[in-house]
Amino acid sequence: SEIEKGSYAHYMLKEIDEQPIVIRRILEKYQGENEDILIDPNIRIGMNQADRIYIIAAGTSYHAGLVGKGYLEKLAGIPTEVHIASEFNYNMPLLSENPFFLFISQSGETADSRAVLVQIKRMGFPTMTITNVPGSTLSREADFTLPLYAGPEIAVASTKAYTAQLAVLALLAADIAIYKGLKLDFNFKQEMAIVANAIETLCDQKDRFRELSQEYFTNTRNAFFIGRSADYYVAMEGALKLKEISYIQAEGFAGGELKHGTIALIEDGTPVIALVTQNNVDGLIRGNVQEVVARGAHPMVISIEGQEEKGDTCTIPAVHEILSPLVSVVPLQLLAYYAALQRNCDVDKPRNLAKSVTVE
Ligand code: G6P
């Protein structure tokens, strides 16, 4: 069954490997007739009536929310804000007239997110939870739920739930777009199937990522992940994965922001992992790589097929640009996994962390 490790040494690696299956399962579960996507019509109606969507989440789910904002704005054309749950309640922004609240939570039990949900319900605004646990508190208390269908996630560091969150957010945005009569410039289901295959290809390259992890992370105190646009959000998630399970101090940065302070931290041999998947900023992020290399950094460039250059460390298979976060995160998950292994860390149960945090 899905909650047994089988031949895997750790749940985390098993869950990384399950990602293609999860993406395909999501497509199947939400498969409506023809091009339609199977979700409660009240969801698309409710969200389409909103003048602004507020995404509330914590940890990895917050990082998924950042990518999801891009989907809701670029595909569905609805202005979207993303907020850290623990901040929102006590420093609430000025709300729009007709907000719609979208809670993203793997467990559906995060107290920080629930505190916001309770408050928002009191204010009378519509709410929805995207969760891996449909019977969970956040699911029961929100007006609507969209399940992730990722299967139980046991490892504390979230992997398959993150890619499932991105897939469901993309699907939701595509559904609203179709409902609004906006033309998508691509076949959503076809592109998602390509994504599942691309993840599979990367999961077949574990030896390579183990070697890279050894080369970059064996003797390092810190590491930087950089990207621009959607790659920046994936960089944040990659850094979180490395921090959580290997205890290497890691930060995800917007490539262009480095020079405004953080570049001072670059020393001889500092690992800098750069993502290059977004067309309109590929020259700029490559420029940022040059800047850190000039200061002694040990660069790892992860590019996407079609934008690769000689000397890149690895290249992920081509997928539709907007869906690249579902694929580019996989090398970062594997790198973190092997870094933790090399350091003899407890991969599935890292120190000081809990799978779901039920206190504010
Ligand atoms: C905990 C976990 C993280 C997770 C966060 C949000 O801190 O250790 O991995 O991202 O909670 O959890 P949720 O269940 O709300 O997605």
Automatic annotation (TrEMBL):
Tell me the function of this protein. Catalyzes the first step in hexosamine metabolism, converting fructose-6P into glucosamine-6P using glutamine as a nitrogen source.
Residue ranges constituting the SIS domain according to the UniProt record: 43-182, 212-350
Subcellular locations according to the entry? Cytoplasm
Q: Which residues of this protein are catalytic?
A: K355 (for fru-6p isomerization activity)
Kindly state the subunit structure of this protein.
Answer: Homodimer.
Encoding gene (name): glmS
What reactions does this protein catalyze? D-fructose 6-phosphate + L-glutamine = D-glucosamine 6-phosphate + L-glutamate
Q: Which domain of life is it from?
A: Bacteria
What molecular functions are annotated in GO for this chain?
A: glutamine-fructose-6-phosphate transaminase (isomerizing) activity
This chain's protein is named Glutamine--fructose-6-phosphate aminotransferase [isomerizing]
Keywords, in A-Z order? Aminotransferase, Cytoplasm, Glutamine amidotransferase, Repeat, Transferase
EC annotation? 2.6.1.16
Presence of keyword Magnesium: no
